[in-house]
Amino acid sequence: MTAPLLEIEDLCVGIGATGIVKNLSLEVHAGEILGLVGASGSGKSMTALAVMQLLPESAAMTGTVRLRGETLTGKTDVQMQSIRGRDVGMVFQEPMSALNPLMRIGDQVAETLRLHRSVSALAARSAAREALDLAGLSGEQGALDRFPYELSGGQRQRVAIAMAVVMSPPLLIADEPTTALDVITQAQVLLLLRELVRARTMGLVLVTHDLAVIAQLADRVAVMHQGEIVEQGATTELLRAPRHAYTAALLAAAALKPKRAVRRAGSSEVLQASGIIREYPRRRRSLWRAAAPLRAVDGVSLSVHAGETVGLVGESGSGKSSLLKVILALERSQGGQVRLLGEEFSNATGANLHRLRRAIQVVFQDPYGSFDPKWTVERLIAEPFFLLNAPPLAAERRRKVAIVLEQVGLSAADAQRLPHEFSGGERQRIAIARALITEPAVIAFDEAVSALDVLLREQILELLAQLADRLKVAYLFVSHDLLVIRAIADRVYVMQGGRIVEEGPTESVFASPRHDYTKALIAATPKLPVN
Amino acid sequence: MKRMNMDSRSTAFIAGAVITALFVGMALLAQYWTPFDPRVLLIVDKLQAPNAHHWFGTDQLGRDVLSMIMLGAQTSVGVAALSVAIGVFVGVPLGLFAAARRGAIDELVMRGNDLIFAFPALLLAILMTAVFGPGAVNAIIAIGIFNIPVFARVTRAGALQLWTRDYALAARVAGKGPLRISWEHMLPNLVGLLVVQGTIQFSLGVIAEAGLSYVGLSAQPPTPSWGRMLNEAQTLTALAPYLALFPGFAVLLFVLGLNLLGEGLRRRAGRPS
Fold this sequence. Notes:
The complex is a heterodimer of chains A (about 525) and B (about 270).
Chain A: E1 6-15, E2 18-28, E3 33-37, H1 44-51, E4 59-67, E5 70-71, H2 77-83, E6 88-91, H3 95-98, H4 105-116, H5 121-134, H6 153-165, E7 171-175, H7 183-200, E8 203-208, H8 211-217, E9 220-225, E10 228-234, H9 235-240, H10 245-255, E11 269-280, E12 294-305, E13 309-313, H11 320-327, E14 335-340, E15 343-344, H12 350-357, E16 360-363, H13 377-381, H14 394-407, H15 424-436, E17 442-446, H16 454-471, E18 474-479, H17 482-488, E19 491-496, E20 499-505, H18 506-511, H19 516-524
Parallel strand pairs in A: 3-8, 3-9, 6-7, 7-8, 13-18, 13-19, 16-17, 17-18
Antiparallel strand pairs in A: 1-2, 1-4, 4-5, 9-10, 11-12, 11-14, 14-15, 19-20
Helix pairs in contact in A: 4-5, 4-6, 5-6, 6-7, 10-16, 14-15
Chain B: H1 2-30, H2 65-101, H3 103-118, H4 121-132, H5 136-163, H6 166-173, H7 178-214, H8 226-233, H9 242-269
Helix pairs in contact in B: 1-2, 1-9, 2-3, 2-5, 2-7, 2-9, 3-5, 4-5, 5-7, 7-8, 7-9, 8-9
């Protein structure tokens, strides 16, 4: 066996008195993909940053990091600058913020090269072209001259990968590289990473919370829990027979078992959308002719029955969010009609609109942006009471807020705290409490679990399944993640390019998809080996 | 390294706060007490260099310069504070309204702001003096009008960013209209931003007041003001340089203090949440 490419020995990272990483030791060999997996806050990102010596200034670290036998720990920042990029490449989660918005992508890739080697601008450009080729951006028209804003999320991530590999570093570190991408793009980026590692015998450290992603890619897995590695081993064996309870929990959460038995829908339709068209005006290019509008939603009809959970699935840009805004009467449609409890909702006004709004509430994706940071939890949860003609006063309001807080698994004492005192998962519970307070017939969820790690996602989905059974409330669950939809929905709509391309009971759509797009979505979804 | 940065930052902030408090305190004190009454002219005491009796000396009419600086601070603080108030009470609602409504109304409000912006402040002050006669009130109004677009722009930019947050959508789902959301969610989250801008406009107001009174368009005699003291000292620079030094230094120090305070507040507040 050859010497390992990357060796980490006894790594400890702490911020103040808190230990973030404790006595961690790892090895990565050339040509090997190591998956570093754990829930948010387990210290996996800090480990990745420690290798690059990019820890925040407030963090203290001890231990040794060696790359090809050369000790990196204790090197000065100037010495590290020549190593970063040349010997270790890094890919981050958010491709937009990793790129310079004002620089053409070809120049950005070339810049990495020119920082390390004195090469001519022409040579750097041709190397950049090669790297972008390798990252799968070659076929695009004028690929090198485009700006980051002209690219989709997946294309941006390809640029970030091209930047990371242009120097042909022996080691690549990827921190949640596909978490911000939809399933189809995720599958493409994962495939790209695997091909790069195989073709160049690089080492790859893949940091993620999702064992399903690891299962697609990694040769070996290290499971991190509270700053320590609790288990490591070859991927297939570890996934087949996890020894540590935490690994088993992660595995169960990543598998996303259906949360409850499918319910036969009641007869009454609580929400009915028919022929919805939503167009956005485009900037005019000619002085004489208005530009043709962008049709984001193109004649969509869907319905939700009482107590039913309906999934709406599609990749980013398929028009799901625009449709949801029309359904919630936040935006006017250019055609079609939304009926709520049998009454017209889309054009309702005044008191009528308020009365109907009580019947439909919403939970958003971002657990951080969903709450006014200056408001207490009680005031936030009670905000929809504005829809009532006679909002409950002090004591009554407090009692009702306490009831919903307890329904979502928080305590009545949390009502007086501010949102920043809660974790991401707890905030999502507060958002659900806010949606429950008016006792609506339907709750819409816009990617409500996409920002959570697998363990929290599992907990929230279980909570939602329980609440649906207990309160007989219907859900319209919008997500790009098929596994999430399969775990919770009774019936599913598949949306592509502003149209519904397939619909039906969840199990039959997943077992025998009819439309090509549905088949592609299912094929792209990372799968765990079946025990 | 980081610690040191933090310390030097908060030192600047504290220095700014102390200087500002000193001048505002001086202005308040002058309401009840000054070492001498600067309205009484004692020609026998004229043009004394700074001494134990008159710390900052006396001017060509025998008035105590320290007392005039103190009363001048009153004019300065008063004019700057009231003109900031005009900017806040008109500009902030305009900015919130523009951000809430968007479209044609937004366009109308902001282009109106551009129009005011394009007008030189001095020209407006001269215009108002020509129509209503010179005085502190006209200076307040002239400077105040120029604060309106500044606050409107800052408020609109901040509010537009807050409108993209999910809590603005959540409030709409709760049936609230754009104006109510502006009042309940936008304004409280913009206070930090507005306090910082207010401090900066305050310091600009101090400079503008000094400039206007230098050319005789602000407070009229016998009300002392720093700008007019500078103007009167001009012809006596060779004879009594301290006469120009003290009011000039007062303007400089006060503006410096306000800027340090504003910068410190901005750092503390960070980005609008």
